[in-house]
Each structure stands twice: as structure tokens, then as C-alpha cells.
């Protein structure tokens, strides 16, 4: 069962961007490259695909939007993982991928970033669930953290939703996107977004659920 009495809060402004946590410098800044750029290059090296330097105008657009995009990725990941460090790692990797794909996503990057951050965070949840299951037999019930159990139950419930309902729930309630922005990101009408949101929340039993905001 999903835990009760918990509601996902909104308010992206609660999560201020912390430059130190991002470890980030703007592309072209003297003596440094952005960590997103470095991560993209490392990914390209591993896959055997050379990183192609982006035009200066595209770099500047990325730099301008980086803070809000990093914040968006961090909030989504934190609400899934409940871990600051884990959320920062997801946000960092998400923005590295965004830089590599910037020419394709730059017109509407927030939805893309939210979806990628959610997918990466859910992958971590699955790995954590497997690890916890292995330890569960040797762990007394009263030693388990009910908040973590509730979070994992909620994420499992979201993953069981039909694809469109899941996408709408993630963008509307984990990423704090408006109905209009969600519709634009998914190529849907606003009325369709509302319908999927209503059905998704109903399937979750009214528990959208858990104030995943930082205390």
C-alpha cells in the first residue's frame, strides 16, 4: 500500500540553485569548461563518438537556461530519490545530456529535462529496491524507514500507470510544470492533459503523495 497523509508539494522556488553543488562554469569561461561539457565529452569518448563543439550562440542559450533546467532536474530527482546527493548527480548527468542534444531540444528543453531526470532517478530506485529486497529478510520491520518504503511504493505505482498518464503525472506533479507547458512538451491538448492527470491521480488512490520537498 502507498502511504497516506502525504501530498507532493509544488513550488520550484524552494529549491535554490547552488553553483557549488553544480560544480559548473559557463562554456568559454576563462580557464574552465562546464562540468556538463566535460561529462558530455567523457560520454562521447566512451561511446566512440567525438563531441562536436556547439556554436557560440547555442552555448550562450544553454548557459542562459542552465540554472532553471538544473533546478528542474534536481527537483524531479529529489522527489523520486529523497536524496540531495543522488538528486545532484542526476541533475548533473541530465544537463550533460541536454548539452549534447541541445540543437534538438533547445526550443522546449524543460519537459525533456524533466523526463530524462525522472527516468534516471527511477533507474536508481529500481537498483535500490533490488538491494533492499536482498537485505529485507535480515532486517527487522521496526528498523525500516517507512518514508523510504512509502516513496518506493509511490514510484512503483506511478510506473504502473499507462504511459500518457505517467508522463503527465511526472511533468505536472514532480516537475511542477503548468498544464500548458505539459501539453506543449507532450504534444497534447490542455484538455487531454487534464484528463490524463485526473485519471492518473485517481489510479494512485488520491495519494500524490508524499511531500518530497526538502525539509
Question: Can you characterise this structure?
Answer:
It contains ten helices and no strands. It has 215 residues and is an all-alpha fold. It has a domain at 59-203: Up-down Bundle (Butyryl-CoA Dehydrogenase, subunit A, domain 3), CATH 1.20.140. α2 (35-47) packs across α4 (84-100) and α8 crosses α9 (179-186). 34% of the residues are buried.
Task: Look at the structure and give the mean pLDDT.
Answer: 74
Shape type: flat
Task: Note the gap between the termini.
Answer: 24 Å
SSE string: HHHHHHHHHH
Major β-sheet annotation: none
Percent helix among the residues?
Answer: 55-70%
Spatial extent as radius of gyration: 18 Å
* CATH third-level topology of the domain at 59-203: Butyryl-CoA Dehydrogenase, subunit A, domain 3
Number of strands: 0
Strand content: under 5%
Give me the number of helical elements: 10
Could you name the ranges where pLDDT drops below 50 across 5 or more consecutive residues?
1-51, 209-215
| Name of the level-1 CATH class of the domain at 59-203 | Mainly Alpha
Structural class: mainly alpha
Q: Tell me which CATH architecture of the domain at 59-203 applies here.
A: Up-down Bundle
Outline the fold blueprint:
Blueprint: H1 19-22, H2 35-47, H3 56-81, H4 84-100, H5 102-105, H6 109-136, H7 146-160, H8 163-174, H9 179-186, H10 190-203
Helix pairs in contact: 2-4, 3-4, 3-6, 4-6, 6-8, 6-9, 8-9, 8-10, 9-10
Keywords:
Butyryl-CoA Dehydrogenase, subunit A, domain 3, 10 helices, 66% helix, flat
Task: Write a brief structural summary.
With 215 residues, the protein is mostly helical. The protein has helices at 19-22, 35-47, 56-81, 84-100, 102-105, 109-136, 146-160, 163-174, 179-186, 190-203.
Amino acid at each position: 500500500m502507498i502511504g497516506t497523509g502525504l501530498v507532493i508539494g509544488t513550488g520550484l522556488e524552494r529549491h535554490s540553485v547552488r553553483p557549488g553543488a553544480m560544480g559548473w562554469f559557463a562554456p568559454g569561461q576563462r580557464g574552465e569548461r562546464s562540468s556538463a561539457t566535460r561529462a558530455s565529452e567523457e560520454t562521447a569518448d566512451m561511446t566512440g563518438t567525438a563531441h562536436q563543439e556547439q556554436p557560440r550562440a547555442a552555448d550562450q542559450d544553454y548557459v542562459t537556461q542552465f540554472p532553471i533546467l538544473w533546478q528542474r532536474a534536481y527537483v524531479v530527482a529529489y522527489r523520486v530519490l529523497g536524496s540531495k546527493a543522488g538528486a545532484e548527480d542526476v541533475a548533473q548527468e541530465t544537463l550533460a545530456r541536454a548539452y549534447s542534444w541541445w540543437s534538438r531540444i533547445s526550443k522546449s528543453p524543460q519537459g525533456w529535462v524533466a523526463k530524462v531526470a525522472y527516468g534516471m532517478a527511477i533507474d536508481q530506485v529500481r537498483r535500490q529496491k533490488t538491494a533492499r529486497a536482498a537485505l529485507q529478510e535480515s532486517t527487522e520491520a521496526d528498523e525500516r524507514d517507512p518514508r523510504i518504503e512509502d516513496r518506493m511504493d509511490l514510484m512503483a505505482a506511478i510506473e504502473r500507470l499507462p504511459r500518457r498518464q505517467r508522463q503527465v503525472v511526472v511533468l505536472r506533479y514532480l516537475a511542477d510544470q503548468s498544464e500548458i507547458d505539459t501539453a506543449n512538451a507532450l504534444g497534447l491538448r490542455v484538455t487531454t492533459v487534464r484528463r490524463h492527470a485526473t485519471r492518473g491521480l485517481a489510479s494512485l488512490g488520491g495519494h500524490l503523495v508524499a511531500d518530497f520537498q526538502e525539509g
